[in-house]
């Protein structure tokens, strides 16, 4: 039992006339000075800090004390993680823990490629949801595994391989072409039309083993945050509304949201901090504009006959 709990028990016993405060402290082993201590009033700065913590908790209820501390520091507050944690506990602000799923225990037999620079490995997958009126929502997400930037987050009633190609083309025009792209064995990702297009643009594919989503952990982690912070909080009535809300979340995720694996920087800020030599960008096709003007292509294989499956 903590000293705070002991103090509450003694105060309740004194109020009901069971015993005196001195006797209650002796029985529970509580110091009398601790029992009689009354905390002073908070300073104006602490009151403003607590008010701001409440505002951030209302705005982003899934943010923990570490991420809240990072946002406060970005705003200019001179606070630490322990101070934010203490104030949140005093105010009763706590993120409800999510139920952890038991992962499948097994060893991958593939040879995954770990991203070492920008546009080295992209990852993509679909996440399903529905509008309030019952219509289906199928959202394609495309991420850079190195910078964690979300290049595509597009919702539609249905997305075929041709739609996937068009969306990826737009991302390549803006950010440059990746060397590898990782995905599961979904019908959209193994379609002959898509494989032919990737081979023509010299983009190698990495397919994870069927039933092993942990091999595509970057996009799965992003989907967890996306569902927790956007889909579960919004009522999406129409497809148009869903597209606006989802695109706003993508911009916020890239530009503002602190990422714990990036030192609590936003993905856009982390990407801007990378040295150009560590972030090669190449066009996908002859004449296709690159994300960096005048930068030559690098790290590209001369020929590819079939997408590599690992």
What is the topology?
Layout (H helix, E strand, L loop, with lengths): L2 H13 L5 H8 L3 H5 L7 H16 L5 H11 L5 H10 L30 E10 L5 E9 L5 E7 L4 H15 L4 E4 L8 H9 L3 E4 L9 H15 L7 H17 L11 H7 L37
Parallel strand pairs: 1-4, 4-5
Antiparallel strand pairs: 1-2, 2-3
Helix pairs in contact: 1-2, 5-6
- Give the rounded overall mean pLDDT: 82
- Helix and strand content put the structural class at alpha/beta
Q: From the alpha-carbon coordinates, what is the Rg to the nearest angstrom?
A: 26 Å
Q: What is the overall number of helices?
A: 11
Beta-strand residue fraction: 5-15%
Overall helicity: 40-55%
Stretches with pLDDT under 50, minimum 5 residues? 102-110, 286-310
Q: Tell me the overall shape.
A: elongated
Give a quick account of the main beta sheet: strands, pairing sense, barrel closure: 5 strands, mixed
Assembly classification: single chain
Annotation, overall tally of beta strands:
5
Give helix and strand order, one letter per element, not per position: HHHHHHEEEHEHEHHH
How are the strands of the largest sheet arranged?
Answer: 3-2-1-4-5
Report the end-to-end length measured between terminal Cα atoms: 54 Å
């Amino acid at each position: 039992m903590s000293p705070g709990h002991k103090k509450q028990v003694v105060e309740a016993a004194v109020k009901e006339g069971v015993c005196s405060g001195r006797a209650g402290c002796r029985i529970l082993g509580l110091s009398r000075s601790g029992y009689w201590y009354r905390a002073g009033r908070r300073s104006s700065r602490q009151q403003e800090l607590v008010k701001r913590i409440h505002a951030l908790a209302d705005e982003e209820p899934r943010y923990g004390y570490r991420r809240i501390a990072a946002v406060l520091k970005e705003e200019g507050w001179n606070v630490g993680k322990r101070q934010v944690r203490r104030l949140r506990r005093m105010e009763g602000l706590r993120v409800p823990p999510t139920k952890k799923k038991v992962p499948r225990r097994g060893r991958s037999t593939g040879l995954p490629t770990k991203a070492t620079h920008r546009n080295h490995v992209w990852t993509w997958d679909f996440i399903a949801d529905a509008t309030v009126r019952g219509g289906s929502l199928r959202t394609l997400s495309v991420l850079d595994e190195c910078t964690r930037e979300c290049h595509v987050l597009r919702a539609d009633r249905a997305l075929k391989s041709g739609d996937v190609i068009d969306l990826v083309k737009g991302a390549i025009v803006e950010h440059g072409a990746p060397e590898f792209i990782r995905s599961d064995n979904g019908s959209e990702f193994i379609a002959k039309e898509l494989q032919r297009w990737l081979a023509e643009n010299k983009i190698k594919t990495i397919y994870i083993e069927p039933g092993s989503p942990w091999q595509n952990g970057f996009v799965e982690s992003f989907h967890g945050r996306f569902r927790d912070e956007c889909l579960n909080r919004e009522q999406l009535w129409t497809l148009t509304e869903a597209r606006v809300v989802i695109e706003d979340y993508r911009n916020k995720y890239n530009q503002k949201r602190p990422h714990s694996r990036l030192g609590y920087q936003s993905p856009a800020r982390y990407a801007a901090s990378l040295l150009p030599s560590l972030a090669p960008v190449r066009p996908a096709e002859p004449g296709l504009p690159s994300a960096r003007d005048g930068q030559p292509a690098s790290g590209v294989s001369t020929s590819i006959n079939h997408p590599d499956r690992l």
